[in-house]
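Ticket 4471: requesting a sanity check on a complex prediction with adenosine-5'-triphosphate. Repro inputs:
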Amino acid sequence: MSKSIQAVRGMNDLLPDVVARWQRIEAAARTALAAYGYREIRLPLVEKTELFARSIGSLTDIVEKEMYTFEDRNGESLTLRPEGTAGCVRAGIENGLLHNQVQRLWYTGPMFRHERPQKGRYRQFHQIGVEAFGIDTPDVDAELILLCARLWRELGLNGLTLEINTLGTPEARAVYRTELVRYLESRQAELDEDSQRRLHKNPLRVLDSKNPAMQGVIAGAPALMDYLDDTSRQHFDALRGYLDAAGIPYKVNPRLVRGLDYYTRAVFEWTTDRLGAQSAVCAGGRYDGLVGLLGGQPTPAVGFAVGLERLAELLALDAGNTTDTQAAQAYLAVLDESVRPQALRLAETLRDQGLRVEFNCGSGGLKAQLKRADRSGARFALLLGPDEAARASVSVKDLRHGAEQATVSQAALGDYLKQRLA
Ligand code: ATP
Ligand code: MG
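Returned structure tokens:
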């Protein structure tokens, strides 16, 4: 036998039991997004490298060292998308969706970053991204945060913490940046290797360091909040007012920055203390400059992305939290070859009534079929043999609650099962 081939490191298979949890998240997200008037857009996984270099910023970790970039057969440089906002903005401009319009959009799918794989951090991971274009006022920032809160509620997650901050305008940030660099230089000996590297390239990112040894230096850094321009401050205060009025608790974290260059003004992050080091489940903020930067008419914009692996991981901690909407509800066992045609018809009739029925294809005695029925996860085993067939009935066995076996007429079976499942 030849050696089997393994998946690429950091790129995971999601097996059916795990997918059940993902589907629950996706269904809840679809409902929540529709409740606010957000519409789905589907975007390519591959874009021109230039798109990310220009939007994310060439000095960010992503563009410097995390992108899957390759030349296609025509020698054009292409990149597997490391995030979704750039592609969404590109599509919005290209298809005339953004100029002088309000657009509320969302998308989901895999993203690719060449990071060091560990729990909660993968090379192919998945996001739900949500973007609102054409609205300058902080009510839409609040709306996005309310949307997140609704999704967590819907999923039964209540341990998430909301942190908010404002990054100000690029002009205000430039002044702050100078002050920050001056401060960090004064404590250069205490900076770890990553922070040394970021010091002159992307100093704000030093504030984002997860290294415990760096926290003292970070705590002493000047606060961006003290360098804010008036409009950014008003925007931020208004956002806080809306969150207070809506009863959404939050912490102002003056050290909260984003790894991407294109953010301006309000930024936010939802974190958990239940997942170890990879604690951010959702991150977002305003990026009013990006549409213009990518060649569109200047358009205000704000959005966020949810990390689905981390969210699914969080849901998994609360066992019994997911019903598998793919698993069969009933398993139809065929006790004699002579009744197989009738059994096939019966299964179809039940499916017509909206039930999920797994049919025992192939052979097997009663014992083997009941074992399969159990493994299928179905609540009921339906037994059809010559006796039942002759009386147009079925024997129904509850596999989960140890109740007596019942005989039910085939005509009434669908309603009977639905009633018992309700
Ligand atoms: P982190 O600080 O954890 O690296 P980030 O700032 O790079 O996150 P964003 O680009 O803002 O993350 O992405 C939004 C969300 O996507 C994150 O909050 C996280 O939940 C998820 N995410 C980001 N990178 C990964 C990854 N490599 N593997 C799994 N999930 C990820
Ligand atoms: Mg990152």
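Notes from triage: The mean pLDDT is 94. Leaving this open until the requester confirms.
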